[in-house]
Amino acid sequence: MKALRLKLSESISQALRKLSFPKKDYSLAPPKNRDFGDLSSNIALLLPRDLNRKPMDIARIIADELKSKLPENITNVTVAKPGFLNFEISNKFFQSQILNILENNDNYGKGNIGSGKTANVEFVSANPTGPLTVGHGRNAILGDTVSNILHWQGFEVTREYYFNDAGRQMRILGESVEVRYFEILGKNLEFPEEGYQGNYIREIAQTILDQHGNELKPNSPIFKKEAEKIIFNDIKSSLAKLGITFDQFSNEKTFYDNGGIDSLLKKLKEKDLIYEKDNATWFKTSTLGKDQDKVYIKSSGEPTYRVPDTAYHQDKIKRGFDLIVDVFGADHADAYPDVILALDALGQKTDHIKVLIYQFVTLLRGGEKIKMSTRKANFVTLDELVDEVGVDVVRYFFVMRSMNAHLDFDLDLATDQSDKNPVFYLQYAHARICNIISRANDLGVELNDSFNPSLLEHEDEIALLKYMSRFPDFLELAYENLEPQTIANYLQELSARFHKFYSHCRVITDDDQLTISRIAIIHASRIILANGFKILGISAPERM
Predict the structure, then answer these.
(1) 327-353 burial by CB neighbour count: b if 16+ within 10 A, else e?
(2) Is the pLDDT of residue 374 over 80?
(3) pLDDT for 97-122, tens place per residue?
(4) What is the DSSP string of 8-75?
(5) For residue 361, what are the β-bridge partners?
(6) Contact indicator for 240, 234 with CB cutoff of 8 Å
(7) pLDDT tens-digit profile of 469-479?
(8) Residue 358, CB half-sphere, CA atoms under 13 Å: how many?
């Protein structure tokens, strides 16, 4: 499909040159309304000012020039208001795509945009202060799926987890565990302000007591160290349940120990970009186009997020990745631009850094919002969510909406075992195809190279074929936007077209040639569904 589109684009450009029309960056893509053909261009809408003519008149002139010079498999060009050029592609072209899909099999849709290139995707990056929650889950699934999208385009991907093991939150964690440790021993200490609550803190304290005995002293570093280790092991276990593993773990403390933060502050000071005021250190962002300066180091001596994260990004840049992707929650929206600003001011390359901001998640049950607070341990853990609805549902629900939109995770819908549940709907399409193929095999009917794709001429067959051929285009669009929802939406539409095809076109018929051809089209449909599922990280069941 992409090759055909390029040929048509060249034909349009040649027509513009012959007509002495100005060169423009026009679009050429499938129209939303299927009645307008298979491809549509807005070129005529971009030329009225240059030519002092109406868009419809310009479109007719271009169409007349193109009619005798259309590429092979483009059968017609028409004009539609307010000035679109619409093109029809031959059924023969779409029918021929089945063989391409079958031959490529589990490689169908793979691109080479990232061939020979490396990408780093940082995601989750939750501090080890407690179990992963539902909110962390959206970050995890988005990051892992974006990594899959990049891998599908040929990138060598490094999945990276960065965490803060040196700041205030970790100190409070250690203090919270310490209080619970001494409580178990019958000694009551004052619980820290904004301390971490919940049974998991008491369980960690009990583990420390079991392993280290009852002789630990107040302010022992063991409380923080052991709590971090135990929680991090739980985090890794939670992610593994979702099929997520990391290639590298980085931590904030490293950049204090290796001098990265000191070096950063020194360079910024040399450029007169940091200063002291009110016992705090400030980043002079007002001289870099911002409205006001930002606190870099608080009066308490603790750095804000911006400082270690800038040092960390310097390290990532130094490692030489062709693409760096950060997956952040909406609470980072104000801070990350300052990181990029500091890197730019230091002469670092930043145009290959892509920051993805996702909106938060609300859990619904019975139409009511489930209230959560991480600090008070009033939350639903990611493990609890997986146990209730399953891995496939968790992964799919977290990507079925745009990351830029708030996500309502409806637990009633997630546990529904009908086609109202979008995951069930998709997987049922795959299972139904597998069942048909199995029944055909039992009857001695198997796919072979002798199938005749031209027999696939029913309108629902053609509609299915047209959408199947667009799978690589949607994967490329998902790469361009780094938006997994693109693939989720594609699979829903593909499943809808398959179910409609199945309801109107019997696969196993009295006509052996037609049967083999329809076996071929459902085989190809199954390949695309399975490949899409693989990118999203959900299973492809053969029976349901």
Answers:
(1) bbbeebeeebebbbbbbebbeeebeeb
(2) no
(3) 999 999 999 999 999 999 999 999 99
(4) HHHHHHHHHHHTTPPP----EE--SSGGG-SEEE-GGGG-HHHHTS-HHHHHHHHHHHHTTSPPTTEE
(5) 407
(6) no
(7) 999 999 999 99
(8) 29
Tell me how many degrees the CA angle 429-430-433 measures, rounded to the nearest 5: 85
Contacts of 275 (CB under 8 A, 6+ apart): 281, 282, 284
Closest of 65, 139, 175 to residue 330, by C-alpha: 139
pLDDT, tens digit, 9 for 90 and up, residues 113-149: 999 999 999 999 999 999 999 989 999 999 999 999 9
The candidate with the shortest Cα–Cα distance to 78, out of 50, 39, 47, is: 39
Find out whether 79 and 63 touch, Cβ atoms under 8 Å: yes
The pair of three-digit structure tokens given for residue 440, joined into one six-digit string: 């055909």
> Residue 392: what are its φ and ψ, rounded to 5°?
-60, -45
pLDDT tier, 377 (very low <50, low <70, confident <90, very high otherwise):
low
Taking Cα atoms as reference points, which of 206, 225, 175, 123 lies closest to residue 233? 225
Q: How many other CB atoms are there within 10 angstroms of residue 130's CB atom?
A: 26
- Which residue type is seen at 266? K
Q: Which residue has the tokens 């960390």?
A: 312
- Reported in sequence order, the residue ranges of 155-201 that DSSP labels E, i.e. its strands, are 156-163
Say how far apart CA 99 and CA 95 lie, in whole Å: 8
Quote the CA–CA distance of 81 and 31 in Å, as a whole number: 13
* Listed residue (429, 387, 159, 275) closest to 421, CA to CA: 429
- Tokens (6 digits) for 52: 């002092």
Q: What distance in Å separates the CA atoms of residue 259 and residue 372, rounded to the nearest whole number?
A: 38
Task: Sheet containing 368-369: give its strands across.
Answer: 368-369, 361-365, 407-410
Report the C-alpha dihedral over residues 103, 107, 112, 118, rounded to 10 degrees: -160
Render the burial of 291-309: b for 16+ CB within 10 Å, e for the rest.
eebbbbbeeeeebbbbbbb
